Amino acid sequence: MKSPSHSPKGRRPDPRRADGARPGKPPARNPTRVAALALLTAVLERHRPMEEALDALPPSDPRDRAAAHRIAAAVLRRLGSLDAVLEPFLRREPPPEVRQVLRIGAAELLLLATPPHAAVASCVDLVPRPFAGLVNAVLRKVGAEGAAALEDLDGERLDTPGWLWTAWHKAYGPGVRAIARAHRLPAPLDLSLKAGTALPEGAILLPTGTVRLPAGTRITELPAFIDGAAWAQDAAAALPARLLAARAGERVADLCAAPGGKTAQLAATGAEVVAVERDPTRILRLRENLARLGLDARVVQGDATEWDPGHRFDAILLDAPCSATGTIRRHPDVPYLKRPTDIPTLAGLQGPMLAHAAKLLAPGGRLVFATCSLQPEEGEAQAANPPAGLLPDPIRPEEVPGLEGAITPEGWLRTRPDLWEEHGGMDGFFMARFRAAE
User: Fold this and answer.
1) Comparing C-alpha atoms, which of 110, 129, 97 is closest to residue 33?
2) 309-318 burial string, b = 16+ CB within 10 Å, else e?
3) Contact criterion met (CB below 8 Å) for 356 and 305
4) Residues catalogued as catalytic
5) What are 363-420's pLDDT values in tens digits?
6) Residue-level pLDDT at 28
7) What is the dihedral of CA 177, 179, 183, 187, to 10 degrees?
8) Fewer CB atoms inside 10 Å of the end CB: C or N, the chain?
9) Contact between 278 and 304 (Cβ < 8 Å)
10) pLDDT of 159-201, one tens digit each?
């Protein structure tokens, strides 16, 4: 038998290990995958929002950051399915960091069309050396067998946390599957435009006036955004301000205003807008967004349950803090940050906010209450018991072209992620409109 230290024809053996790394020298780690690992660790282990984790990343190339976000979002959208594919190839539970890396590799191989060699090699380089062989072996099996396994799974059920599936099944019956299916796809880029702004190239105009571009479009590269004539705003998120129908010269309050998309809509009408926000950090973002757009609104720091400027308003928009379960298409970290106990807590805050907002209305004034939640406790239950002095002002079909079927018998509007599926869906929102007694 030949000595293992010699190879045929006298050549030295390749010093690389079977997993591709050179002994004695740590491999260079791919910055995109490093960032993706940091984002997943922040969300799944530290329960931090992904946007917050993205802001906390070290300075890096914007394209690396965008790619890292894309990978992490793909993992979060299909987390249950990816874990189910990985399970047969794992004899025991790996450490959390290794688990996240395996999820990254599986997502790249099965969802993102990354070349297998690149996906496997970059993930091997992410883990401590004792786990390199495991990651290499498991991901090679995923590459060979994972696509067929993924196809056989009930992905809609697996990718939805149990408590949300139960709640949505109770609220929407069989529609829970359509909602879950919509959550598995990246959301398109929706824009609101200033009046007179040309439609960006490649965009479509939705029936309600929102401009839509394909998922992955870089908003910062659009001329309309650069010129301060456009802002990102989901088609559903644009509806509450439209339903308020503010007019030039009216006194209008936008309570819980940050980040400012709805404030911008209201200010663009020529109304005298006061934007109220409690969080000083979010106030900075609100001011920055209004300044970029060149729109005028008075921004004040205040608590929506007690703020009172000493006068009454013709119209008020209350987009109340909520669980944000309607925004999972755009924020796939939400299911892993929220808990069932959050819902009654948040609903308990919304009622007092609505009651206080009612006191700020002038006689005959209009109020739109909205939440970006799919949970009935944060929408229908609130509107069913309005404060004294608020009268229903039903939403009319002609106000929401293409969404007539989303109007409830009570005259409220309930959007869901699976609506306009042929156009790319929309966020889940609840909206109800009221008028103050004369």
Assistant:
1) 97
2) eeebbbbbbb
3) yes
4) 372
5) 999 999 999 999 999 999 999 999 999 999 999 999 999 999 999 999 999 999 999 9
6) 74
7) 140
8) N
9) yes
10) 999 999 999 999 999 999 999 999 999 999 999 999 999 999 9
Residue 3 reports pLDDT greater than 70 = no
Calculate ∠ Cα 27-30-34, nearest 5°.
105
Tokens of residue 303, six digits: 């608590």
Cα atoms in the Cβ-side hemisphere of radius 13 Å centred on 313: 30
- How far apart are the C-alpha atoms of 7 and 24, rounded to whole Å? 21
| CA–CA dist 88, 398 (Å, integer) | 53
* Spatial distance between the Cα atoms of 193 and 109, rounded to a whole number of angstroms: 38
Share of residues in the chain with pLDDT > 70 (%): 94
CA–CA gap between residue 395 and residue 366 (Å, rounded) = 12
Q: What is the dihedral of CA 374, 160, 114, 99, to 10 degrees?
A: 130
Digit-coded pLDDT (tens) for 282-294: 999 999 999 999 9
Pairing of strands 430-436, 272-277: unpaired
Contact (CB, 8 A) for 264 and 192: yes
Unique residue bearing structure tokens 């293992």: 4
Contact 214, 257 (CB under 8 A): no
Q: Among candidates 221, 204, 220, 201, which has minimal Cα distance to 212?
A: 204
**In whole angstroms, what is the distance from residue 422 CA to residue 267 CA?**
32
Predicted confidence (pLDDT) per residue in 317-350, tens digit: 999 999 999 999 999 999 999 999 999 999 999 9
Please, which pLDDT band fits residue 21 given cuts at 50, 70 and 90?
very low
**Which residues are CB-neighbours of 178 under 8 A, at least 6 positions away?**
416, 418, 421
